[in-house]
Design goal:
The chain is an all-alpha fold. The chain folds into three domains: 3-61, 434 Repressor (Amino-terminal Domain), CATH 1.10.260; 66-130, 434 Repressor (Amino-terminal Domain); 144-187, no CATH class. The relative contact order is 0.07. Helix content is 69%, strand content 0%. The chain has helices at residues 3-13, 18-25, 29-36, 44-54, 58-62, 66-77, 81-88, 92-96, 105-118, 122-130, 144-160, 166-187. The longest helix is centred in the last third of the chain and has 22 residues, at 166-187. It contains twelve helices and no strands.
């Protein structure tokens, strides 16, 4: 299935007219029609606008999500989604909500069963599902107090050490003299 066909399928599934989608995506209706008829491929920016207007990921429209891959294969086999759910022994709700799944190990087991029922290698479906996983964040390596202590300690080491150049020491002395002068002016 081509990009334009996918856009049209999702649009029609949401009962949007071309005019409604074009307005939401801030593109012309005629350009959208050309995209849907596979005369033009949209830029990434335009694809992102269309995906946002349809409330789907750009991957869904390019056919790179697990759901898109499954739908393409179902179309080839002329098999309804309900039959796939029965053959693969997975809940129909899992298949219909596949794009919003944040995968866990059980979901990968489901996808493997689906791949077998569709007669395809499970690797591509598993890889597509893996793209839906949120990025791993290990958290901060230290807390703010520890960070401040490290910076303060490093500053103190530098300030109290012998690493000052003659020019820096003269500048510090001039600054101290300036502060003394300011203090004496406030007293007067």
């Amino acid at each position: 299935m081509h990009l334009g066909d996918r856009i049209k399928k999702v649009r029609e599934g949401l009962n949007f007219t071309q005019k409604e989608l074009a307005l939401k995506a801030n593109i012309s209706r005629s350009y959208l029609a050309d995209i849907e008829n596979n005369r033009y491929n949209p830029s990434l920016d335009t694809l992102t606008k269309i995906a946002g207007a349809l409330d789907v990921s750009p991957d869904r429209l390019t056919g790179e999500t697990a759901r898109s891959l499954i739908e393409d294969r179902l179309e080839e086999l002329s098999m309804p989604l309900s039959e796939l759910a029965h053959k693969a022994e997975v809940p129909l709700a899992f298949l219909t909500n596949l794009d919003s799944v944040i995968p866990d190990e059980g979901d990968y087991d489901y996808v493997t069963k689906i791949a077998k029922a569709l007669g395809v290698q499970p690797g591509s479906l598993r890889a597509a599902l893996a793209r839906q996983e949120p990025p791993i964040y290990d958290g901060p390596k230290s807390n703010p107090e520890e960070d401040f202590a490290m910076v303060s300690e490093a500053s103190m080491d530098y300030a109290c050490g012998d690493d000052w150049t003659e020019a820096e020491l003269k500048e510090i002395e001039r600054f101290k003299d300036f502060l003394r002068m300011k203090r004496s002016q406030k007293k007067d």
